[in-house]
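Sequence design from tokenized structure. All designs in this work follow the same two-part layout: the structure record, then the generated sequence. An example of the structure record is given first.
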């Protein structure tokens, strides 16, 4: 920073100045000091502008960072909601699958039981028919033996 250098020069001039005997006063080169003050005045606006720009840029960066942080938080909340919803959907789908599987098992048992009953009836009828035929065969044998 140019102003700091100029202030240091001014400070050096004052410290190196000849002292007036018996006082705290010093003798300085008026033109040299006024020239440094003029340089300070000329450089001051640029430095103030630069400081203002730095402050403005700092504020912009802070706002941008805050905006990005808010976006990240919102994205995280959205993702969290999605995962929760997805988890709920998964639980519902698993429950529905379990219910479908249970119904299928029950239906299969009903079909199996119905099939066994049907076979039993068919075998029963077949047995009855065979018993009737056996009776006929036995009667016919008895008649053949009597002849």
């Amino acid at each position: 920073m140019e102003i700091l250098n100029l202030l240091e020069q001014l400070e050096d001039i004052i410290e190196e100045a000849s002292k007036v005997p018996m006082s705290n006063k010093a003798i300085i080169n008026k033109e040299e000091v006024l020239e440094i003050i003029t340089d300070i005045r000329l450089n001051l606006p640029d430095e103030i502008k630069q400081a203002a720009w730095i402050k403005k840029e700092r504020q912009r960066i802070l706002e941008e960072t805050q905006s990005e942080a808010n976006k990240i938080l919102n994205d995280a909340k959205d993702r969290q909601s999605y995962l929760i919803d997805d988890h709920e959907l998964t639980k519902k789908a698993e429950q529905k699958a379990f219910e479908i599987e249970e119904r299928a098992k029950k239906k299969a048992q009903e079909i199996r039981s119905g099939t066994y009953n049907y076979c039993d009836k068919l075998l029963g009828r077949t047995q009855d028919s065979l018993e009737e035929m056996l009776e006929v065969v036995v009667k016919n044998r008895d008649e053949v033996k009597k002849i």
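The chain has one domain: 2-146. We note this feature because it recurs in several other targets discussed in the main text.
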